[in-house]
User: What shape does this take?
Amino acid sequence: MPGTGVFPVSNIVFKIGILGILSVEPASMVIIKDMETFSIALDNGVEEWTPMDTDGWVRRLMTAKSMTVSLNGKRNYGDAGNDYVAGLAYKNGQGCNTKASITFPDGGALAMNCVVNVTEGGGDSTAVEALSFEMMSDGKPTYTPAI
Assistant: This one.
C-alpha cells in the first residue's frame, strides 16, 4: 500500500541484481543488508550559448543526465547482496555492471542498469568492517510513479 506524508529514510528499499547484467529475475534482485546511509546525486549536462538577439543573456538547454546512488554501511559476510557488492571490488569492465532498483515509501520505483564502484572497506581493529559503494547509472533509468 503506497504511503503519503513523511517517512524515515529506512523505508526506502534498495535491491541489486546478484547475477550481473544477465538476469532480471525477481529472485536475483536482493536487498543489500546493513546499509546505513545513502544519497542520490544527479549530474546534469547543460549546454549554454549567447545569441546576438538576447542582449547578452545566456540561453540554456539540459542535454545530458547521470545519476549516482551512494550507499554506506557495514560488511555482512553471508548476505547475498552484501557479498555480491563486496566481491565487485576486485573486478573490472562489465564484471561490475548489474541491475539495481529503489522502491520509495510512496510506491514509486526506480530501476536501472548500473556500474557498481566499491569505494571503501575495512576499518579500525575495534570497529565493524565498512562497505561503501556507488551504483552509477548506465543509460537511462526507468522511473515508475506511485499509483
